[in-house]
Amino acid sequence: MDPLVVLPLLVELAVLGRGIYTREPTDIVLATIAVPCLFFSLWAVVESGNPSGVIWGGLFSAAAGGILTFLVVSDIVLRASLLTRTAD
Q: Does the keyword Transmembrane helix apply (predicted)?
C-alpha cells in the first residue's frame, strides 16, 4: 500500500486513540479533527483498489495527515513550553 496513505492513517488512528484514552480537552479536540482526516485516508484505501485513472485520495490523505501532524506537533511544543514556564 502507498506510504502516502499508510503513514497518515497511522497518525490519525494514534491521535484518535489518544483522545479516547486520555480524555483531556486538547486530545479530544485533536481526535475530533482526526475523524474527517480518517475519511480521506479510508477514501484513499478504497480508491487504491479501483485502478481508474488519477488517484487523488493518496494526496488528500497525505495533506490531511500533514495538517493533523502539524497540529499534534504544535500541541507538544506548546505543552513543553508551558511545563518549562511553570517549572521556573
A: yes
More confident residue, 53 or 29: 29
Contact 8, 37 (CB under 8 A): yes
Alpha helices in 23-56 (DSSP H): 25-48
Torsions phi, psi for 68 (to 5 deg)? -65, -40
Listed residue (1, 5, 2) closest to 61, CA to CA: 5
8-state DSSP, 50: S
Rounded-to-10 torsion of CA 48, 65, 13, 5:
20
